[in-house]
Amino acid sequence: MVGQRRAVPFLVLLAVVLVLGSACQTNPGVDVAVAEEGVGESYKIGALVAVTGRASSLGVPQRNTFEMLQQQIDAAGGVRGPDGLMHPVEIIVYDTESEETKAVLGAKKLIEEDNVAVILGPTQSGTALALIDSVQKAEIPLIANAASIQIVEPVAERTWVFKTAPSDRLVVAALIEYLQRQGISRVAWMSVNTAYGDSGKIEFEAAAPGAGISIVTSEKFEATDTDMTPQLTKIRGTDAEALIIWSIPPSASAVTKNAYDLGLDMPIFHSHGVGNETFIELSTKEAAEGVMFPIGKIVVADQLPDSDPQKATLLGYVEEYQAAYGEAPTTFGGHAWDGVYLALQLLEEVGPDRSAMRDALESTQNFVGIGGVFNFSTSDHNGLDTSAITMVRIVDGQWTWVQD
């Protein structure tokens, strides 16, 4: 977590508390937090995560990240609020079960019963879009973990909505730039029939013509489909030079395996929705070989140059998550990390006042996170640019940073 600009006060506090905690082992009657400053009211952060359901491969790493950070916050005694007191922080997590209705009900409970100051998540574009009316009416900040740019645009109708996942518009821009460098001008498109797939398709169709790229055919499939051979057979009969697939596991893996079994002889590009080991496991190592996709830098953190402004922060998160769960984190868990640290920063600055938190978040600059370096503004509630995105290729079952 080194390199996180405005989380430094919390990190310093954590180090101090750990030292004091060690000293207090010989004096069990001493309460570290009380001995330091005194304790104020608890601050509450709400979180909605797809722990179960079709998006669980994305949501479980987020849930794990929330739990890991909760332990760290507890060890530090909470955060120091603007009143100078230490405040315990509770992250209240509800499972959306990958369903829009469950997400809306979870948000209602967080707002009306738990009285949280801010909501983090949910995991998917569809569930995030389903919450917009609720958070706008309740006037509570939402920091979503999903991709669709429609979550935060138009900003005039999304004044309380922000997000940490890079928008599909940025991801599409990075992909198109790579296709241009490789001289690929004709592509076939396949996308899942969800808000995520539809939004990606809209963004690609809008950007491709200006880059001299044509879509020779476009196909859809359902999130529950396991056999996309008919669509792939149609694509094989075109003059497409590459196939672009916009989905998440398990359907993203199914279509990749179908393409391999069919012997489809063209480069395959995916969206950033496949940045976890589940994609490779479900696709099979053989079928995933050579697949490329644009994504945040977390999956190739150790391959980045030391000059990259995110590298230290990324490696810190990787080390902590690996120690806690025995496996590497994903880009999706990183969205949760960013949300928590943004929320902690806001609580330190202005306390649990929802309106003040919204205003402070909108003016946050140079926040070095897992998803990128965030610079929010009145016209940009995602705060990222294409420098947050890199191209990755799967080689022998491993993420490999693409530099060509």
Strand content: 15-25%
CATH homology superfamily of the largest domain: Response regulator
Number of domains: 2
Pattern of helices and strands: HHEHEEEHEHEEHEHEHEHEHHEHHHEEEE
Return the CATH class of the largest domain: Alpha Beta
Largest sheet: 5 strands, parallel
Separation of the first and last Cα atoms: 29 Å
Kindly identify the CATH topology of the largest domain: Rossmann fold
Level of helix content? 40-55%
What is the tally of helical segments? 14
How does the SSE layout of this entry go?
Elements: H1 8-23, H2 32-36, E1 43-49, H3 56-75, E2 79-80, E3 86-87, E4 89-95, H4 100-112, E5 118-120, H5 125-138, E6 142-144, E7 161-163, H6 168-181, E8 186-192, H7 195-207, E9 214-221, H8 229-236, E10 242-246, H9 251-262, E11 268-270, H10 277-283, H11 285-288, E12 292-295, H12 311-325, H13 331-350, H14 354-362, E13 367-368, E14 373-374, E15 390-395, E16 398-401
Parallel strand pairs: 1-4, 1-5, 5-6, 6-7, 8-9, 8-10, 10-11
Antiparallel strand pairs: 2-3, 12-15, 13-14, 15-16
Task: Give the key terms.
globular, four-stranded parallel beta sheet, Rossmann fold, 16 strands, 404 residues, alpha/beta, 17% strand
Structure, described:
The chain is an alpha/beta fold and 404 residues long. It contains 14 helices and 16 strands. The strands form 5 sheets. Strands 4-1-5-6-7 form a 5-stranded parallel beta sheet, with helices on both faces. β10 (242-246), α9 (251-262) and β11 form a beta-alpha-beta unit. α4 packs parallel to α5 (125-138), α9 (251-262) runs parallel beside α10 (277-283) and α13 crosses α14. The longest helix has 20 residues, at 56-75. The two termini are 29 Å apart. Mean pLDDT is 92; it is low at 1-8 and 11-36.
